[in-house]
Amino acid sequence: MEIKKNPKSNLENYSKLFMQLGLVLALFVTYIAIENKTYDKEYGDLGSADMASNIEEETIEFQQQPEPPKPKTPPPPAPEKIEVVEDEKEVEETVIESTETDESEAVEVDEVEEVEEEEEVVEDVPFAIIEEVPVFPGCKGTKAQKKACLNKKMQKHVQRYFDAELANELGLAPGRKRIYLQFKIDKDGSITQINARAPHPRLKKEAMRIAKKLPKMKPGRQRGKAVRVGYTLPITFNVE
Known about the structure:
Helix content is 29%, strand content 15%. By secondary structure, the protein is α+β, with helices and mostly antiparallel strands. It has a domain at 125-239: Fusion Protein Consisting Of Minor Coat Protein, Glycine Rich Linker, Tola, And A His Tag, Chain: A, Domain 2.
């Protein structure tokens, strides 16, 4: 039967051996360091080196450029000749005449022609856009009120004077008929340029007749001036 050795016991033996070797090595190194001495090194005469003799000189040549020619200075201008006038010679003086008029001198004025200013011609203005509407007798108020009053007075005038039986006498076809009565309210307020469109000549004549019965009105005005105002009055009636 073999007896096995413990590996730990082997390691302990090796460690002791290594420790002894380390001490011996440390003592040997210390001894060598003490015995070692340092000496100053002596250098021999190296001699003087002739650096200049070994370096080749490089010559740099400079080319001198010729100076540019100087510009020629122009000769100074000749001095102006000044003519000296002797006192004995007479010098003509320039006389400057004054343009101012003498107040004492009489100025003759020809006859002044009077220029007649042409009056601005204002064309007829439609009733719908007139600035100041014509005024029917008895109408008052604002522009809108006067306008409405004139239309109402016109309708009453037609109802009062128009002969409605005339349409039945003419034998017109039954139905709704219409007459367009046109005229101008002139600058003085009178009724002029009366015209009418009707389905029968007698109806046209009747419409123009009642237009002539309209009273004189206050004329309409545009830009502060009296103008003619165009007015259209439709007359509607039924024929049975």
